[in-house]
Amino acid sequence: MPSEQRALVTGTSSGIGKAIAERLLSDGWHVTGLDIAAPSLKSSMFTHVTVDLSDGSAAEASARQAGSVQAWVHAAGVLRVGRVGSLKPLDAELMWRLHVQAALCIANVVLPAMTAAKHGRAVLVGSRVSAGLPGRSQYAASKASLVALARSWAAEVVAQGVTVNVVSPAATQTAMLDDPARSTENIKVPPLGRLIQPAEIASLVAYLLSPDAAAITGQDISICGGATLPR
User: Fold this and answer.
1) Which of 34, 32, 30 shows the shortest CA–CA distance to 5?
2) pLDDT digit string (tens) for 63-121?
3) Distances (CA, A) of 118 to 15, 103, 113
4) Which helix (H) or strand (E) holds 33?
5) What is the pLDDT of residue 98?
6) What's 208's DSSP letter?
7) SS3 content of the chain, % helix, strand, coil (to 5)
8) Which residue in the list 29, 46, 72, 139 is annotated as catalytic?
9) What is the distance, to the nearest Å, from the Cα of residue 13 to the centroid of all Cα atoms in its chain?
10) Residue 207 appears among annotated catalytic residues
């Protein structure tokens, strides 16, 4: 394993992606952040690349620009809601491009390099909604696709010392909750009694990127605050 650890993280300007980048920086990682929004992190160990990740060619080019990395976290995301009968194809396309196509394009660059180096960690940020939820069919479908990708890729690269996992949070305290598109939606608080905090997700991701997590791969791990427990 290289002494200088470098990570590629998408969606680092806000929310979960920012929390993950902050945690990795505090752990001594050099982080390259990919986001269409302006950077909100300042560190000599942080490099921001402005890129529209919904553009597959741009996503691939930005991954190549990042150079050799030992970890990749795909946290960029967007949520559009709608019930059947009022679904908007453009919403589905946006979420597919950002959640799934960007992951495909970046993985195509990053994972082969990791297998060649015989070491690497990848974490895709999914959602507990991937199992299905009223009004979230398009979002759920894109997040469920990440689980299928992660399990498939994990099977391909496990023998070369590379792991691929999904972390799936329940409702999380991020700016996404303030999206005007969700103004009529009641946010369901987990049984824990509060929303999941981005830093809690970042802690799990940091562990999955560590040497101690070498035997964990192909898993979809929920941070649900009890939302998946039988009641």
Assistant:
1) 30
2) 999 999 999 999 999 999 999 999 999 999 999 999 999 999 999 999 999 999 999 99
3) 31, 21, 9
4) strand 30-35
5) 97
6) H
7) 45, 15, 40
8) 139
9) 13
10) no
